[in-house]
Amino acid sequence: MKTDSNHQNGKLTGIEMLEYYEKGPWPSHVNEMKKTAYPLEVYASGLETRASPWFGGSAKVRYVYVGFIARRSKDGKNTELHFRVFQPSGQIYRTETLRKLLDFSDKYGLGLLQVMGQTGGLIISIDPEKADEAVDALRSLGTDIGDTGDTFRDFASCIGPALCEYSLFNTLEARDYYLSYPPIYEKISNQLFPFKVKLKFSGCPMDCSRAVHRADFGFIGTWEGAPEVDQALLKDKDKSGQISMEDLARNCPSSSINVSVSGDLSIDPEKCEKSMNCIKRAFPAIKPGKTRKIAFMAGGNIKGRFGPKMAKPVALLDDYKQAEVFITSVIDRWEENYPHKDRIGDMLAKEGFSRVVEALKETLPVAPNGKPSGQTRIIDSAVLSDEERDLYATWSRKIMDEYRGA
Amino acid sequence: MPDLSERMKKKLPIPYTDFLPVQIGDNVGKWVDRRFHGHGIVEHISSSGDHIFTVKVGSPANVRFSTDTLRKFNKIEDEYGIGSLRFTRSGNVELIADSLDKAEKLKDEVEKIGFYVGGWGNTLWSISSCTAYLTCTTAVIDSPSLTKVLYDNFYRYFTGEEELPTKLKISVGGCPTSCGGLVADLVLVGHYGDAPSYDPERIGLCLPRKAEALDVAVPEIVNVCPVGAIDAFKKDDNTVGINIKREKCIACGRCKDVCDHIIFDPDKSGVAIMVGGKSSNTGSGPELARVLIPWVPVTLPAYGEIVAVVRKIIDIWKKNASDGERLGDYVRRIGLSNLQEAMHIPVTKWNRTGFGKSTFGIRQFQERGA
User: Fold this and answer.
1) Residues 6+ apart with CB under 8 A from A312
2) pTM for this prediction
3) How far does A333 lie from chain B, in Å, by closest CA?
C-alpha cells in the first residue's frame, strides 16, 4: 500500500478510510467484515488507489460449472471465492434453516454473507481450499450453488401470497415451477448461452421484484376492467376519516374515478390503468378486480449490448405456465444465433420484437396482445472534457457551500 | 465415494412451502387487510383470524452481514418472534412476530444492537448498493462506502423521524452497468468520465496472437463495443493492435468487462446522478431514470459533493411534490430540463435526454385512446 506517499499528499490512507467508515450512525459494513475473515486490507487498498483491488481469479470444483466467482487481489496476496446460493422463493427462512447456513459459512468460509445479491442469490464467501467439500455440504442442506455466468440466474419473486394482500397470482409457486421446469432445469448447471437469463415474478402492478426492467422474462399480476369497490366499507372509511373519496378521485393518475351525488364511488373500467393509487389507500374497500391476468413481458435488462431496457409486452396470460414453450423457444433462437454478451432484449431489438412474437405466437395458448412502446437509449456514463468536468465540479461545490452556510 | 456427477443436478430449495413457518404456511393466500404501526412495523390480517407483524430492519451497505450479527438476529427472533425471518428484494431484513407487543420487542432488541427499524410509508425504503471494491472487477467507484455515507446522512428518512412526500428508493452502482438497475427514484452511477486507454504491455492478452485471426473473426473486445469505438488492426510485426476512438466512446466500460487491461484514469471518474426511475405502475407508471447531472466529483471519504446534491434534490422534491407524488412522477410532471434550470445545472449532451411520452410495463396492454 502506498501509505507514506499518500500521507505526504494530506490524503487519508486506506486503513484510515476503513476507520472512518466504522464510525457514523448507520451500521457499518466495515464493522461487519471486521468480525469475519474477509481480507479488509484489500478493500483498504482499493479505497486508497480509488480503483477496484480485484482481478478475476480462477477456481475449479469438480462437476460444478456455475455458481462461484473467484477473485485474486491485484497485489497477488489474497484470493476470494464466492458461492452464490439459491434462496427459497420469497427468501423466507425459519431460524433453524438459517442457523445451518450460518454454521456452513463459519465452517467452510469467512463467516460473511451478502444476504441479497442483485440477482437474488444468497452470497457466501468461501475458503477456496475447502470449496470442493463445501459444495456437497451445501447440497446436504437442501440448496446448491448456481446463478453465475451465461446461464439461467436465480429467478426472483416478490413475497406474493405468503405475506401480501395484493398478490394476484402465486409468484412463489411460479418461481419454483420455472426453476424446475425440465427444459430450464437441464441447462441450469452449464453455461451454454450468449449471456445470462433472468425470470422475475411480481404478484401485482407494484412490481416489487422489478420484473418490468430487470428480467429477460417478467410476469406481473394484474386484472381486467375496474377495481372492485365495497361501497359500504368505503363510506365507513370516508366517514371515519381514514380516506377521503374526493382525494381518491382527484389523485387517480388516469382520472378514472367519479364520486356520485349519492356518495357512491365508481371507476371507469376502460380508463383505469391499474396504478393502485386508490387500492393502496382504501384497501380492502377497493380491491383489484376479479378477472385476474398475468402480464407476460420479455426483453428487459440492465446489462446488454444496447444498454438498459424496459420489458416489452407479449401477452396477458390466464396462468403463468402458459409462457413456458414461448420462453424456451425464444431462448433456443437466441442461443443458436446470437454472439456473446447479447441479451435477449438485444435480440428483440435487432430482429424486431413484433417479428419475433409473430414468428413464435403458435407457442402461446393465448393471442399476443401487447402494444410495445418505443424507448430512448439511455447512457449513464459520459466522456467529458476537462473543462466540462470543471464546470460540474464548480456547480456541485456551490451546492455544498449552500448547505455549509445554512 | 459419492458420484460427483450428481453435482450436475442442482439441489433447488423448493417447494417454498418447506421453508415457511407454520403461522405463515397456514395463511398463504388468505391475507385480507394490512395496518401500519409507525414506519417499521406492518400488521397482516388473515381471513383465518391470524395476525402477523413484520419488522423491517435496515442493512449495512451491500447487505454484508457477519454470521455473528445474523446469529444475534436469529436469537432475537427465536425469543420474541415466530422463528422466521426474511430478506427483502431491496436488501432489508424482516423479523416476524404474531403480536404487536412482540413486534415492538423485536424492534427494541435490534435497535439495542445498533440497527434501525423503518422503511415503510413516507420514508427512505432502502439504498441498494452493488459490491464494487468488495468483490467486483469492473467497479469505478466504491458504492458500499458511498451508501454508508448516504445512510449516515439520511437515516432519519429511513426511521421516519423526518418524513418524505412518499416512498424514496435509492440505488448506487459502482460502474455504468448499474447492477441495481435504473428503476429507483434516485440512481447514482459511478463512471469513468472519459474514454479509456490500455496497458500496451498486456493488451495482447486480450487479442488474437497473430493478425491472420482478424480475417476469421472480430476480436471480442471490438465486438463488445456498442458504439463501434474500438478498431483492431494488423501491426508491422504481424501482431494485433487496437485503436480507441475517443469521439465515439461513451465510456460504458463493456471493453473492460472482457479485458482487464483496459485502463481508465481514476482522476477523471465521477458519479452520474439520475432521477425518475420506478418499477411500480403507480403514478405515471414504470420508467427508467434519466441523467440529471452527468458528473459529480468523488471525494473520499465523505463524498461531500454527492451528499449535497442528493440533499438538494430531496429538498426540492419535498417542497414541490403534490399529494403522495414519487420523485419520479414529480420530475416527469415538471420535465427534466425544468428541474435542471431550477437547479442551475450545466447542460451538455450527456444530460439532455428527458422523459418521452411512452408508457411501460402493464400499460402496454392498455388500448390507447386519442
Assistant:
1) A297, A298, A299, A348, A353, A370, A372, A373, B364
2) 0.96
3) 20
Residues A165 and A76 in one domain: no
Same domain membership, residue A298 and residue A163:
yes
Which residue range(s) make up the domain with A352?
156-223+292-363
Subunit contact B193:A382, Cβ cutoff 8 A: yes
| First vs last C-alpha separation in chain A | 39
Q: Are strands A199-202 and A217-223 parallel, antiparallel or unpaired?
A: parallel
Name the residue type at position A154. Answer: D
* Chain B interface disruption, residue of A122, A141, A392, most B CBs within 10 A: A392
**Tens digits of residue pLDDT in A140-162:** 999 999 989 999 998 999 999 99
Nearest-neighbour CA in chain A from B283: distance (Å): 5
Q: A113: part of which helix (H) or strand (E)? A: strand A109-114
Other beta carbons within 10 Å of A406:
5
All residues of chain B having their beta carbon less than 8 Å from the beta carbon of residue A144 are 10-12
Q: Are residues B259 and B274 in the same domain?
A: no
- B282 part of a folded domain: yes
A1 pLDDT exceeds 50?
no
Whole-number Cα distances in Å, A205 to A165, B90, B187 = 13, 17, 22
B327 to chain A, any CB pair closer than 8 A? The answer is no
A90 with A232, same domain: the answer is no
- Asked if the structure places residue A370 within a domain, the reply is no
State pLDDT tens for residues A352-380: 999 999 999 999 999 999 999 999 899 99
Distances (CA, A) of B126 to A313, B23, B250: 28, 27, 30
DSSP notation for B252-319: --HHHHH-TTEE--GGG-EEEEEE--B-S-STT--B--EEEEEEEE--TTT-HHHHHHHHHHHHHHHH
Same domain, B67 and B80: yes
- In this prediction, residue A2 has a pLDDT band, given cuts at 50, 70 and 90, of very low
B162 and B277 inside one domain = yes
Is B334 within the bounds of a domain?
yes
A61 shares its domain with A163 = no
Q: What whole-number distance in Å separates Cα of residue A81 and Cα of residue A320?
A: 36
Same domain, B340 and B273: yes
Smallest CA–CA distance from B315 into chain A, residue: A403
Q: Would you say residue B236 has pLDDT above 70?
A: yes
Domain count, chain B: 3
Q: B353 vs A376: CB contact, 8 Å cut-off?
A: yes
Cell numbers representing residue A149 in the block: 455466468
Inter-chain contact A253–B14, Cβ cutoff 8 Å?
no
The minimal CB distance from B8 to the residues A91, A189, A402 is found for A189
B291 and B188 co-located in one domain: yes
d(CA A263, CA A245) in angstroms, rounded, equals: 9
Closest-CA distance of chain B to residue A328, Å: 19
Q: Do B12 and A163 touch (CB under 8 A)?
A: no
**B83-91 mean pLDDT:** 95
Question: Residue B151: pLDDT above 80?
Answer: yes
Mutate which: A212, A314, A378, vs B, most B CBs within 10 A = A212
- For chain B positions 331-360, those within 8 Å of chain A (CB to CB) are 344-346, 348, 350, 353, 356, 358-360
The domain boundary, picked from B88, B112, B136, lies at B112
CATH code at B66?
Answer: 3.30.70.3340
Please indicate, yes or no, if residue B1 is contained in any of the structural domains.
no
Question: Which three three-digit cell numbers place residue A33?
Answer: 467484515
CB B189 within 8 A of CB B274: yes
Residue where a domain terminates, one of B51, B80, B112: B112
Question: Domain range spanning residue B63?
Answer: 16-112
Residue B31: in which H helix or E strand, if any? strand B31-37
* A384 located within any domain: no
Residues B21 and B102 in one domain: yes
